[in-house]
Specification:
With 235 residues, this protein is mainly β. The protein has 3 domains: 63 residues, no CATH class; 34 residues, Low-density Lipoprotein Receptor, CATH 4.10.400; 72 residues, no CATH class. Helices cover 3% and strands 16% of the residues. A two-stranded antiparallel ribbon has the order 1-2. Strands 3-4 form a two-stranded antiparallel ribbon. A hairpin with a 2-residue loop joins strand 7 and strand 8. The longest helix has 7 residues.
Length: 235
């Protein structure tokens, strides 16, 4: 059966919206003087405006407008308690986002916070970085620690970040410390890093006999017969 509730300003709304914890009347009269009667399977929010199932208590999601369904809970091992009693995940501590209603997860001295990360995470700029972002070739931490000490299949920057051999001495900065471009002189060409001499600098070995002139003296495309078969399979 459909019924309506008349707001004090004469606005009509669905009767089911009366005392549902949301303001539907422009004058907010639909949430005034609300009292609800909850069943044994339900929990009454402290402001007595809404009933929720007890299975929703302390699940990390606020269902009561007054947060009472998430207060005074026993926090899990991977959670910490806000000053107001709310439990939030430890990764939300000092992440520059206010997750506690009272803001206690973002204290003024966040830079001095001690972060406790899971075994598959690392501390990164005062928050925990998931393992999936470690050694993925992208610098996520300001100090580059997520890309340092990684096992490189190809070339390694001086700061520990991994790049491809083809990115060495290609006149494009790929290492944050620019080390992929600062050693590119004839005397520093390193065959172990797949570099060859070209004029007064180095180029990737893969550019040798690729059909494109990269050196002014054309040395990268001279005497290419021994590379013919190799480059055929590369193309």
């Amino acid at each position: 059966m459909y019924y309506e509730f008349t707001c004090k300003n004469s606005q009509c709304i669905s009767g089911y919206k009366r005392c549902d914890g949301h303001y539907d009347c422009d004058d907010r009269s639909d949430e005034a003087n609300c009292t609800v009667s909850c069943t044994e399977e339900q929990f009454s929010c402290d402001n007595h405006t809404r009933c929720i199932y007890k299975t929703l208590l302390c699940d990390g999601i606020t269902n009561c407008k007054d947060l009472s369904d998430e207060l005074n809970c026993t926090c899990h091992k991977d959670q910490f308690r806000c000053t107001d009693g709310l439990c939030v995940h430890e990764s939300q501590w000092c992440d520059n986002i206010f997750d506690c209603a009272d803001g206690s997860d973002e204290p003024a001295d966040c830079r001095q916070c001690v972060v406790s990360c899971a075994p598959n995470q690392i501390e990164c700029d005062n928050h925990c970085l998931s393992g999936q972002f470690i050694c993925d070739g992208v610098r996520h931490c300001s100090d580059g620690k997520d890309e340092s000490s990684c096992k490189c299949d190809e070339a390694r920057c001086d700061d520990g970040m991994c790049i491809m051999y083809s990115q060495l001495c290609d006149r494009k900065i790929d290492c944050a410390d620019e080390s992929d471009e600062i050693y590119c002189t004839n005397r520093s060409c390193d065959s172990k890093n797949h570099l060859i001499a070209c004029d007064d600098h180095c180029i990737p070995e893969s550019w040798r006999c690729d059909g494109k002139l990269n050196c002014i003296d054309k040395s990268d495309e001279l005497s290419c017969s021994k590379y013919a078969v190799f480059n055929f399979f590369l193309k």
